């Protein structure tokens, strides 16, 4: 049990700004094993975002409460996945070869594609949540959105090989391997919040989520031969928005 706690705290340390005990680190071996708890970290982040929304909804409008919730979740994670999404937008938007794409993605500077991508996905995330607010499920939606999108990202880590950079000394720390056991555990925590809705129809959201995974996984495979941490981060961001949009469609049809 102590070992599992270590794995979970390593995931918390790696993906958030939440303070952890000094004995927790993110060595390559521990980080790879901690991937099983990425979805659980999503539940944690989603719960924080949900709490912020709930508390401020007593004072401010839905729009302001959602904005503060999104800001809080981004600050808590250090914009970890948003940064990966922006890097992917810049890399695949400006590069036409594997070498060029990986070089651009490694650059810490934000380019035009990254700026446009961030504005677009954050705007779409806000608007979809704003429309979902009429269902009075926003706290549950935030928790589920953060957890299930991280599960989808871990599928990419499981199915696709990590692409080594040409300058390995500058590669960001990331999970490069994932076992079947870790994927199953991640899936359990990723899907667990769906039971909060007491509505089996929400499980239909898995269809567009899997289609999203298949498309982006094939796209990454075609251009760079596998995945990087930035690719997983980008998939998490896209999957989160796809989940919100899927709920809008599901609740209009059923």
Radius of gyration: 18 Å
Helix content: over 70%
Principal-axis shape: globular
Mean pLDDT: 93
Contiguous low-pLDDT stretches (5 residues minimum) are none
Oligomer: single chain
Total beta-strand segments: 0
Task: Give the helix tally.
Answer: 11
Largest sheet: none
Strand coverage percent:
under 5%
Q: How many discrete structural domains? A: 1
Distance between the termini: 42 Å
Order of helices and strands: HHHHHHHHHHH
Which structural class should the secondary elements be placed in? mainly alpha
Please tag this protein with its features.
254 residues; 11 helices; globular
Task: Write a short abstract of this structure.
With 254 residues, the protein is mainly α.
Any overview of this molecule?
The protein is mainly α. The chain has one domain. It is built from 11 helices and no strands. It has helices spanning 2-15, 28-34, 38-56, 62-77, 80-94, 98-106, 112-132, 138-159, 180-191, 206-224, 229-253. Helix 5 (80-94) packs across helix 7 (112-132), helix 5 crosses helix 11 and helix 8 (138-159) runs parallel beside helix 10. The longest helix is centred in the C-terminal third of the chain and has 25 residues, at 229-253. It is globular.
Topology, pairings included?
Blueprint lengths: L1 H14 L12 H7 L3 H19 L5 H16 L2 H15 L3 H9 L5 H21 L5 H22 L20 H12 L14 H19 L4 H25 L1
Helix pairs in contact: 1-2, 3-4, 3-8, 3-9, 5-6, 5-7, 5-11, 7-11, 8-9, 8-10, 8-11, 10-11
